[in-house]
Amino acid sequence: MFRKLSIVAFAAALAVAPLPVLAQSKKDSVVMAMALEPPGLDPTIAAAAAIAEVTLYNIYETLTKINEDGSVSPLLAESWTASPDLKTYTFKLRKGVKFQNGEAFDSAAVKFSFERNAIATSTNKDKSLFQAFEKVDAPDADTVVISVKYSEPNLPFLLGQASGSIVEPKSAATNGTQPVGTGPYQLGAWAKGSSITLNKWADYRNAAAIKLSKVTIRFISDPAAQTAALLSGDVDAFPRVAAARAIGQFKADPRFNVMVGGSRAKTIVGINERKKPLDDVRVRRAILAAIDRKAMIDGAADGFGTPIGSFYVPGALGYVDTTGINPYDPEKAKKLLAEAGVTTPLELSLKLPPPSYARQGGEILAAQLAKVGIIAKIENVEWAQWLSQVFAGNGPHNFDLTIVSHVEPIDLVKITEPDYYLGYNNEAFNALCKQIVATPDEAGRAKLLGDAQRMLATDAVAGFLYQPQLITITNKKLKGVWKDVPQYENDFSTWSWE
């Protein structure tokens, strides 16, 4: 009798409770995890994908927005038009937008951001794109006109990447630690080595549409710890989690949603062609012939990958299968080394960044190379060390071999950059890339892209391994998390609890 009366009384109390009190019971925070901590929070000055995973579309916004299916929609630009030759783009900007420090967003901020990305001292990962802008005009506060030196049908897509984030001029110098953007979230706290907290920005132009008031991002690099954090409920979502070996357990658990999505990423063995004997194409072909791609996919990616033979992936415009150009053939590898005059054992450094695919893949690669007389001396380094010692455009390029996954969707042309870390310098390839960007029709461009892929494979520019398939695991009640990944990002504006 007491139980029934209590329930009636509780129901009556709910009936008269003010609506705001009831609304507060809905969950509005989330804990996400990612493998790597970003080295800073300004995606316009550093290449690490982890920066975009935290900041893109959350703190910073871009003129355009890349969607899960790879399509492009308006963001800070309401609309845009292109000239018939695809060399001039006119963007109409969204009005009434403010930066998080109260400054107005306008065409001057866009012009500043893009010109800053192009200066000689810029460290923007897509510096070459912005240097290809002949000029950026701001005829009025709401209009930006970009003139490109060549036809660029992909410009709306490219400007939706993190490197195209629009920054506020007064805050640009300190964005690495005190980011200021136009997005729906602001930096709340950064506990180095542990987590980052983002808080909903109350003055965002469409704040009512943002369902999560707080996002906590934890950094968990160890695969076993990643799995444990999800199973314990300490983490609500883990995009791109290294949980392939436990995927069956998660699929069988009704608490979780398991998504296996596609990507435009390319996992490769980077070869430093600035160093001898790696400048000899026969030595590079020997390295490729020593690599069993299937064993690498099984061991480094737990089977979640598609073999590739060039710096390009299935599904992209003009893709051709080049895996047959450098097939697994250890005996051929030995003959190529002998032809190149290499005395074995040949010792090479193998510098590996922290992700599990690199560390696990490095062990497999070293074992495969040892069978043909190449001794790969493994050196595990932290992410910041890898970026500065291996990848940084100004050198020192202090490595022989490395393993890394390039996650940018349209970056084949980056190989033409003279300071690119691979050190490939082929005038024929550079001319071909210029021809590609000067060809506005899709069919013609696709054919030339096929030629470029064959050239990279024939020249054994890198040990092209696989296109990763990415696993995302979330709480079943969390909605809006992407399955497919055209670029690495976590758009929290789309996330909500059921």
Helix-strand blueprint:
Layout: H1 2-16, H2 19-23, E1 29-34, H3 49-55, E2 64-66, E3 72-74, E4 77-82, E5 88-93, H4 107-118, H5 127-131, E6 133-140, E7 143-148, H6 155-158, E8 185-191, E9 195-200, E10 214-219, H7 223-232, E11 237-238, H8 247-251, E12 256-261, E13 266-271, H9 281-289, H10 293-300, E14 305-307, H11 330-339, E15 346-352, H12 356-370, E16 374-380, H13 383-391, E17 401-406, H14 427-437, H15 442-458, E18 463-468, E19 470-475, E20 478-479, E21 496-497
Parallel strand pairs: 1-10, 15-16, 15-17
Antiparallel strand pairs: 2-3, 4-5, 5-7, 6-7, 8-9, 9-10, 11-19, 12-19, 13-17, 13-18, 14-18, 20-21
Q: What do these coordinates show?
A:
The radius of gyration is 25 Å and the shape is globular. The protein has 15 helices and 21 strands. It has 498 residues and is of the alpha+beta class. Helices cover 29% and strands 22% of the residues. Helix 9 (281-289) packs antiparallel against helix 11 (330-339). It has three domains: 60-173, Alpha-Beta Complex (Dipeptide-binding Protein, domain 1), CATH 3.90.76.10; 185-262 and 470-497, D-Maltodextrin-Binding Protein, domain 2 (3-Layer(aba) Sandwich), CATH 3.40.190; 266-468, Roll (Dipeptide-binding Protein, domain 3), CATH 3.10.105. Strands 14-18-13-17-15-16 form a six-stranded mixed beta sheet. The chain has helices spanning 2-16, 19-23, 49-55, 107-118, 127-131, 155-158, 223-232, 247-251, 281-289, 293-300, 330-339, 356-370, 383-391, 427-437, 442-458, and strands at 29-34, 64-66, 72-74, 77-82, 88-93, 133-140, 143-148, 185-191, 195-200, 214-219, 237-238, 256-261, 266-271, 305-307, 346-352, 374-380, 401-406, 463-468, 470-475, 478-479, 496-497. The chain starts with a helix and ends with a strand.
